[in-house]
Specification:
Length: about 200
Amino acid sequence: MAWILFALVCLSAYLLGAIPTAYLFGKAKKGIDIREHGSGNVGATNAFRVLGKLPGILVLVIDVAKGAVAVTLLPQLIKPITPLAYSWLPALLGILAIAGHIWTPFLRFKGGKGVATSLGVFLFLDPVSTLIALGVWIASLLLFRYVSVSSILAAITLPIAIVSFLRPFPIVLISSIDCIIICYMHKSNLRKLLLGTEKKIGKTS
């Protein structure tokens, strides 16, 4: 019975992350499919560009909250199967929420790039390392004005910081996996950077 509950909680984390916030806001606010506008991405950055500041902020907050809920509230729904399994549970639920955001079944498994939901996950798993990565994100955005570059640099910084602070292995592992996934999800942005066609923050054309 405990294993069934464990499986349901894992599924809940994935489906929570899979809620396509930017898509729903696009439909509600402008009656559009956000995938057909801007970068075509179902994430906070494209929501800012296509829907405006307030919807963009709301999308960002909700996407961050999805990750936060996955690692804070969902683990409380299940009693420890074993101490070892329970020590892995928040990390597992966090990576499942991130995966749900990126590969949402509600949009044929094509969602956002996972940055905002990752922020929500790691803010609670390791706040110090996450704030360092967030600082790198902000500094690189001010310097280069590319959200994609900032996201990649922050994703790389996070596992380095986590390892430096000797955090538990489950957090080290999922931060490393998350880094690889986020860098992979930005491969099209890297191509645009090489071609000189990547959009800077504040520009719509």
